[in-house]
Amino acid sequence: MKPIIIQTTFKNEEEAKKLSNILIVEKLAACVQLKEIKSIYSWKNKICCDNETLVNIKTKKKLFAKVKSRILELHSYDVPEIIAIDISNISKDYLKFIKENTI
Q1: Is the pTM of this model over 0.85?
Q2: In the record, what terms sit under GO molecular function (predicted)?
Q3: Which of 24, 36, 76, 79 is deepest in the core (most CB within 10 A)?
């Protein structure tokens, strides 16, 4: 089993919590972390600076497509960030936690 972190952002905590709860209930994620951040980016030839909620989703690599599909289904952005980060070092206990709490 290959563990990954899928990273995305939402415009507010309410949207982020909605996705997080669905992923946990459907066992597509073992853990989801939310953090308030400020993002600076270029959109339609304009520099933007917005408050967002960063979401880190701990899951299995084989579940990436399903998680991505749920993000796209529930997201309000035209182009949501969906990035998978391979976990190269992980404790045996945390790896077991991910295995036991995902499908």
Answers
A1: yes
A2: copper ion binding
A3: 24
